[in-house]
Write a structure and sequence with these properties.
Protein name: Molybdate-binding protein ModA
CATH class of the largest domain: Alpha Beta
Strand content: 15-25%
Structural class: alpha/beta
Function: Involved in the transport of molybdenum into the cell. Part of the binding-protein-dependent transport system ModABCD.
Organism: Synergistes jonesii
Number of domains: 2
Number of strands: 10
Largest sheet: 5 strands, mixed
Subunit structure: The complex is composed of two ATP-binding proteins (ModC), two transmembrane proteins (ModB) and a solute-binding protein (ModA).
GO molecular function: metal ion binding; molybdate ion binding
Strand order of the largest sheet: 2-1-3-10-4
Distance between the termini: 68 Å
Helix content: 40-55%
Length: about 260
């Protein structure tokens, strides 16, 4: 009898030790792929702020994330690389008064590092014989939309399409990978993505006035089952430690 009681006590102790892990709340955060590095750093920091909350990321193009939310994917917080994707789901899925602008970014032209034999130096060079193939995000990807806007305002978009110079990628990380692998002559990505790779070189920033400001909106979803935890994490995203991470990885903090 005494032996059985001892085993029971050990079992109870084991359950008590394991309890905190089972009690952790999983907070699903859908974020633009261009935020991968900064948000992963923030998740590590947040583990110390609230060990009972586990941040579970889903990184992809904002268009893909928007579609997943519309199709019923479990999402507590959405951070888009463009206002368009957030606007599309705003009325039906976004919790009122939770939307805010979290960071801003810049668009750059990159080439494979050390592999620029034709001396590409500007966005205008993309229309010249210096470039045979350029990687861009597709029309459902914010960076692809900004790229199209830039080249349209420069008056060379139709020329690029007519000459079949464009190869499309499903998100900005794919554009980065294609360029880093020298599968193309150049690519258009965010400055923050370019900063994460030693295999590419930034040649030029997008000409001033050729595209809308790049502002990333964030919001809590109406259907979240963890409203208090989501509000706490959003509050943390607005804190100085998080702003420091965003700034260090190349983002800017929008003026409030």
């Amino acid at each position: 009898m005494k032996k059985k009681l001892s085993l029971l006590a050990l079992l109870c102790a084991a359950l008590l030790i394991a309890l905190p892990a089972f009690a952790a709340t999983e907070l699903y955060v859908f974020a633009a792929a261009s935020m991968t590095e900064s948000m992963n750093q923030i998740a590590e920091m947040y583990e110390k702020v609230d060990p009972n909350v586990k941040i579970v990321y889903n990184f992809d193009s904002s268009g893909t994330l928007k579609t997943q939310i519309e199709q019923g994917a479990e999402c507590d917080i959405f951070i888009s690389a463009g206002q368009k994707q957030m606007n599309a789901i705003n009325d039906k899925f976004v919790m009122p008064d939770t939307r805010f602008d979290i960071v801003s970014n810049r668009v750059v032209l990159i080439v494979p590092k050390g592999q620029n034999p034709t001396n590409i130096r500007s966005f205008g060079d993309v229309a010249s014989d210096k470039v045979k193939l350029i990687a861009l995000g597709n029309s459902d990807v914010p960076v692809g939309q900004y790229s199209e806007e830039i080249f349209k305002n420069m008056g060379i978009w139709e020329k690029l399409k007519k000459e079949n110079k464009i190869t499309y990628a499903s998100n900005v990380k794919e554009v980065l990978a294609q360029t880093a692998a020298a599968a193309v002559n150049c690519g258009v990505v965010y400055s923050t993505d370019a900063a994460t790779s030693d295999a590419v070189e930034v040649i030029s920033f997008a000409p001033k006035g050729t595209h809308r400001p790049i502002i990333y909106p964030a919001a809590i979803m109406k259907d979240t089952k963890h409203k208090a935890e989501a509000e706490a994490f959003v509050k943390y995203l607005k804190s100085d430690p998080c702003s420091a991470v965003f700034t260090k990885t190349g983002f800017s903090i929008p003026k409030k």
